[in-house]
Amino acid sequence: MNQTPLKVAVTGAAGQICYSLLFRIASGALAGDRPIELRLLEITPALPRLEGVVMELDDCAFDNVVNIEIGDDPRKVFDGVNAAMLVGSMPRKAGMDRSDLLSANGKIFTGQGKALNDVAADDVHVLVTGNPANTNALIAMNNAPDIPNRQFSALTRLDHNRAKTQLAKKLGVPVSEVKKMTVWGNHSNTQYPDVFHAEVAGAPVGDKIEQSWLENEFIPTVSKRGGAIIEARGASSAASAAHATVECMHDWLFGTPENDWVSMSVVSEGQYGIPEGLIYSMPVTCSNGDYKVIEGLEINDFSRAKLDASAAELEEERKTVTELGLI
Ligand code: NAD
Ligand code: LMR
């Protein structure tokens, strides 16, 4: 077991996702028994609230937490970090699309990308949860020219988990039996949860599913789940988002399970005809801190149209942030 503390930065640390996330990280969900140093970033007015959260972390007496630092200066907080979970940004309210947050949230990721570029450890892994996550990750990546593009990703693990559960319920099987789910594209309503390569108990599920269920129930339920939660809770998903964030970073750093893959939004190198440079959700396996996109999956006409629609939306978002001068 590596006893060197893993330095983990988390932004938006006084917000609702982090009220779950920090306690999951501290209790070992990220790195098992490896010592953790937490670096928590907030905006200045939220620092008193963050101090309260740190009091609670202290009161848990977590064995693995060797140090906690807080601050409002990304250049100090990100100094030497090995992992950065960029959660801090405004959530959408009922009636909004995530892309409506682009101009408000996008600029957060220019400064944070630059700070990571200058002070983070060479092996830093940057995972963006704050919405619109894919294009915020694109902004951070483009503002960090010295960090390899492969060290940036955006969270679509929540969508992946949502899709697995909906499929398990439909087939009446435990969710643990569902493998090789794929979510393609943007963390938005155009995302495409794809069951055509999924397996249940080792067998393909494609022919057990009616196309009408896919089109009228499964895809809309998964892709609009964030909005349904906002309607029901009056606030966006928090505990499930925290869980997905910690799982995604865990798998990226320490590896995905055998005989399965996960969905991560990573920089396209042109795989599956997706324009290069977009941060696009794809099926990946991870080992030794790196990911590998699963290549060679057959894409039918129905899937092709969905992949292209989400890529077109991400190209529009890239155009918008280019015009805003953020990349
Ligand atoms: P929240 O409003 O409860 O917390 C956000 C926190 O970020 C606040 O405490 C705020 O002070 C802080 N913040 C704002 N600007 C900052 C900056 N420049 N640096 C550091 N901190 C900053 O929101 P939340 O519910 O925790 O959600 C956070 C983000 O995550 C939202 O954008 C939300 O839409 C997104 N989200 C994404 C997913 C996903 O699957 N990708 C899932 C759920 C939520
Ligand atoms: C989610 O998918 O739950 C989050 O992105 C929050 C949202 O705005 O939908």
Describe the main β-sheet briefly.
6 strands, parallel
Strands of the largest sheet, in order across it? 3-2-1-4-5-6
- 3D shape: globular
> In whole angstroms, how far apart are the ends?
40 Å
* Topology-level CATH name of the largest domain: L-2-Hydroxyisocaproate Dehydrogenase, Chain A, domain 2
User: What is the count of distinct domains?
Assistant: 2
Number of helical regions: 10
What is the percentage of strand-forming residues? Answer: 15-25%
SSE string, helices as H and strands as E: EHEHEHEHEHEHEEEEEHHHEEEH
Keywords:
about 325 residues, alpha/beta, Rossmann fold, L-2-Hydroxyisocaproate Dehydrogenase, Chain A, domain 2, 6-stranded parallel beta sheet, 3-stranded antiparallel beta sheet, 10 helices, about 40% helix, globular, binds nicotinamide-adenine-dinucleotide, binds (2S)-2-hydroxybutanedioic acid, L-lactate/malate_DH, oxidoreductase, NAD(P)-bd_dom_sf, tricarboxylic acid cycle, L-malate dehydrogenase (NAD+) activity
Structure write-up:
It comes from Propionimicrobium lymphophilum ACS-093-V-SCH5. This is Malate dehydrogenase. Belongs to the LDH/MDH superfamily. MDH type 2 family. NAD(+) binds at residues 12-18, 105, 112, 129-131. Keywords: NAD, Oxidoreductase, Tricarboxylic acid cycle. It contains ten helices and 14 strands. It is of the alpha/beta class and 327 residues long. It folds into two domains: 6-154, Rossmann fold (3-Layer(aba) Sandwich), CATH 3.40.50; 156-318, Lactate dehydrogenase/glycoside hydrolase, family 4, C-terminal (L-2-Hydroxyisocaproate Dehydrogenase, Chain A, domain 2). The strands form four sheets. A six-stranded parallel β-sheet has the order 3-2-1-4-5-6, sandwiched between helices. A three-stranded antiparallel β-sheet has the order 7-10-11. A three-stranded antiparallel β-sheet has the order 12-13-14. Strand 10 (199-200) and strand 11 form a beta hairpin. The radius of gyration is 19 Å and the shape is globular. The N and C termini lie far apart (40 Å).
